[in-house]
Amino acid sequence: MRRVRRAILVCLLLLACLVDRTGAAQLSLPPETPAVLDKLYSYDLDGAEEAARRMVAEHPDHPLGYLLEAEAWWWRVWCESAEFKYGMNDVRAEAQIKVHETAEAQFYAGMADAAAARLYALRAENRNAARAGVRAREHLLRAKALDPGLADADLGLGLFNYYVDTLSAIARILRFFMGIPGGSKQEGIRQLRHAVAEGVLTPDVARFYLALNLHRYDQQYEKALAVIGPLADKYPANPLFQLARGDLYAKLARKELALASYRAAGAVNIRNAQCRARVQELVRKSLAALGAKNGNGEPSAIPAKPDSSGQSASAVRGNAH
Predict the structure, then answer these.
(1) Which of 11, 107, 150, 309 minimizes the number of CB atoms within 10 Å of its CB?
(2) What does each C-alpha distance from 207 to 129, 134, 201, 231, 249 come to in angstroms?
(3) Closest among 66, 72, 65 to 41, alpha carbons compared
(4) pLDDT at 306
(5) Per-residue pLDDT tens for 283-307?
(6) For residues 117 and 133, is the Cβ–Cβ distance under 8 A?
(7) How many CB atoms are closer than 10 A to CB 88?
(8) What is the pLDDT of residues 58-82, one digit of tens each?
(9) What pTM did the predictor assign?
(10) Do 111 and 201 contact (CB within 8 A), yes or no?
């Protein structure tokens, strides 16, 4: 965690290196970015982390390598905890950084705030989380003001708008007293779809969160399946994508397709032992919930009881940060 925190702080400090660049219609990405993203979403997290470090070595003045290294770490933690929700969380920058008027610098500042924020979520520091979410939103709004065509900024803005609109009544009262801006689920969905369609850096992760939101909060299972399907096909080695698709098939009573997705998740060779054990546990519970048997004719696991929201034990658990 300390290594990731240092990476994010270095990223924030490097934003000063972007201030002399002129605004651009799209982000200026290091040429190896697609290869790093492919490793990340194919769930080769060790390879993604190593490739991100090479990006840092080859482009020490660009913040993206540091952010991708932190992202690889976060996907590993996410797998171990199986908490499938983007946290509007936060880490207060430990250095005073003056970001000048370029859309790219503002975008990376917002993404760094969002990434660092998740460290607070691990400690359930909700007030700090909310404040950091607001800071990230301010950077991303400024990025869009400087470059209205910067679709990647709509990932963070869409998630903020969506989740703020799903807060409970008590949380809404706290939001009012803390001065946290309101949001709109409809606008959030529109922004996430824009990031999927037009983004350069964020289409895949925007697609993942859009599918999760349509599933968990809106119960629009068919739409969510249409969103997650291309991602699961593109990255068959990502067990989280396969589990998410399996859950949607199960909700739509397509049992054989659900079983196939769950078993595909269970067949993935995950190098991290703790993550592998967690995925196998989720697969066993998901198969058991559908009444599947193991090779010995015995139930794969004890059928899972529904949680307080009425959901069975499934991959997309969505514990809020």
Answers:
(1) 309
(2) 23, 23, 12, 8, 17
(3) 72
(4) 37
(5) 999 999 998 754 334 444 433 333 3
(6) yes
(7) 27
(8) 998 888 998 899 889 888 877 776 5
(9) 0.78
(10) no
